[in-house]
Amino acid sequence: MSTANLHIEKKKMLAAKLRFTEFEGEWENRAMRDFTKINQGLQIPISERFYEKADDNYFYITNEFLRKGSEKSYFIKNPSESVICNEDDILMTRTGNTGQVVTGVHGAFHNNFFKIKYDKTCDKWFLYYFLTSHKTQHTILKLAGTSTIPDLNHGDFYKITLNSPSVSEQQKIASFLSAVDKKIQQLSRKKELLEQYKKGVMQQLFSGKLRFKDENGKVYPDWEEKKLGDVASRVTRKNKENNLNVLTISAQLGLVSQLEYFNKSVSAKDVTNYYLLERNDFAYNKSYSNGYPMGAIKRLKKYDKGVVSTLYICFCFNEMVSLNFMEQYFEFGLHNKEIEKVAQEGARNHGLLNIGVNDFLNIDLVMPSIEEQQKIAHFLSGIDGKIEQVNGELVKTQEFKKGLLQQLFV
Questions:
Q1: I want to staple 95 with a disulfide (CB 3.0 to 4.6 A). Which of 3, 48, 151, 184 is the partner?
Q2: What is the mean pLDDT of residues 292-298?
Q3: Which residues are registered as beta bridge partners of 307?
Q4: What pTM did the predictor assign?
Q5: Quick count: other Cβ atoms within 10 Å of Cβ 92?
Q6: Where do the H-state alpha helices sit in 165-292?
Q7: What region does 217 belong to: left with phi over 0, alpha with psi -120 to 50, or beta?
Q8: Does position 116 have pLDDT exceeding 90, yes or no?
């Protein structure tokens, strides 16, 4: 994405820092009341909502519609004209998750939404990007108040001010940002497809439907069932050296420093009683987290050493195990059914699964030979590399867009 046809506006004037070369002159500062009109939606009781689409009803746009992965769909009959929106309208949540902006949807909208109509002096997509910019979102949340459920009223919305150029410059800015959004969507989709591909491959590999062969073209020996304790030893070394690199388990980052993850330490003041982990040790957090119904198991890769709470079960594998393979094994969740067998049903203490160390080390693992482990790990690591590459491009493009919004809107 090139910015070659943009230049920095050096004059001290009411205009964006970053502008297209063919435009000049000051921008106009306008309050929302000058060029927009808003309608608030309609609250329909659940008893009057339908779950199936019919010819005479309308899709009912609620906050659930905005939640990623939500499958809830409601329909209602005979809404008033003022609460019907089409694909060209802009909707914004006025309460709850205040300030969330959506467009391109046809239906009748809930009381939690404003429909924003705009006159000919404002380009739709320019207004959309202005409303979604970090600065505007901060203003909206400030106006909505700090109560348990923030609520933006009509009067406060109309107070929001927009610095805008001519419609033609608005359209040029919006078109440029739209191209960046398209790139973000393409990268997001590419990442999603790679993740789906990896999941499918892992399903085949770990179910035995897909097997690797050795250099002579022969299939490796059958997988064997082993106890975790047969191939791993518990790590209980105490932090006698007073190592202050206190670790926590993150779904995305693995074992990571609390200072890096939380921007502060949430550990006890004295950590000399914590377990001291060394690079390639594993730790099991018995606490349920999203994507890890039976707790997460992570390998220490980021640092040479670190310490964890004694609530974690820590262990290391012997030389007959591929560490990369075991990482993939645990990420796929093959240990979940085994832990579920020994964890007492419903017996949780502050969100922790009730599972003892001995029971944990006694869970069954189904493992191939070390040679096949290494081949599987190498193959899956290759896919991981592609996912990381795409994710890196995605993050850079998202940051690029963020920077553009800061410079294109005053």
A1: 151
A2: 91
A3: 246, 276
A4: 0.81
A5: 22
A6: 167-207, 228-231, 258-262
A7: left
A8: yes
